[in-house]
Amino acid sequence: MKDGEGGGGGRGRAMLSKLFQTERSSFGSEDDDVSPRGSGSPCYHSDKNLTSADSSPTPYDMSPSPFLKSPWTLASPAYPFPEDPTAGLLGSLVREEGHVYSLAASGELLYTGSDSKNIRVWKGRKEFSGFKSNSGLVKAIVVAGDRIFTGHQDGKIRIWRVSSKDPTVHKRVGTLPSLKDWLKSSINPNSYVRVRRHRNTLWLRHYDAVSCLSLDKENGLLYSGSWDKTFKVWRLSDCKCLESVTAHEDAINAVAVGGGGVVFTGSADGTVKMWKREEGRHKLVRVLMMTEWAVTALVVGDGVVYAGTSDGLVNFWEWRRRGLEHGGVLRGHAMAVLCMAMAGRLVISGSADKTVCVWRRGDDGEHVKLAVLTGHEGPVKCLAVEEEEEEEEGGGAGEGEKRWVVYSGSLDRSVKVWRVTEKVAENGGVHRTPLHVPRSTYVY
Known about the structure:
Its EC number is 2.7.11.7. The chain has two helices and 33 strands.
């Protein structure tokens, strides 16, 4: 990431530069290759939690023909699973072609995106399909019905659809904004906005990397956040850009839909902002947090909002009688929190310290750290979660307990697959998986 070019250069963002060093992609052609296979509450922080990335940047390998030979292998554990079947490492999808930047789980399928510009599709932890864009590493993926939306480093959002004849074939069916809308707006002088000195651009397009995507299924909307400091609102029915909001003073790293027309944005400028859609326009409701640390991840659950920051902390807010109030801080990482996910009562965070932390939120709002998942050799950049189907016989989980499969994508070029549960030990103590296994340590 280059400071001062589009994405800004805030103090919090500077400490993450080693994790995001990439060459800016110009707005290339639309030709894409398709392959069938192959006032805010306080934020608390401590200086001891600030640790910069200790690994030197690895050059990105661009694979010109990624589908001629699959660069993925499913590395199953060579050891027996732990006796406790409710937790542990299930396997590792090892990538040889690029760092993993984005994940999305939908039903039986897992989509993985990387800086090689490829999107891989997995089914049952086996390679199922794949497709590729000619420009822009894949920074975000969301699935809406039969369409897959991908956000890219080159500022574009691409739309893909599964073939009705062959489920392994994915075809690009559009780009946001569409060429038609772009041409129509380009002839109207009022459609241009000033983005920097001596440069104007159309308001309906991102002119810097699309860093995050979030779906509002209730209202049929897609939100995109960008390093250009704006978030945009797209109508899913016709892919029209309805609104562009200049939301922050630095790059937007996270956007999360909260329901009821409420949207949250987190930025490298150190703020978390809450927006509400009224009469078709988004208005700023309040600033939840202002800090010197970059806000790097957001996730919204039932009555709670979590924000991860570059100092390794996770702040959270809860809906109470007086509205959204600061509830506390989760301290589990030594370096920047880069991604977050929720599953039932669980909140999961991935970090530049190469670990994944799992907390369980109780009815009283208290959080118990259930697990620290270790095994990655690089920063954990993205997470995805899906509920594990119950087995017909046995299954390990107790009655009424839910088990989840957690996917963690890392800059070590791998995706690890974990099983976690909401179970809390009755007698306290620590449960450890065998020491020769990448450990999943439960703390009560």
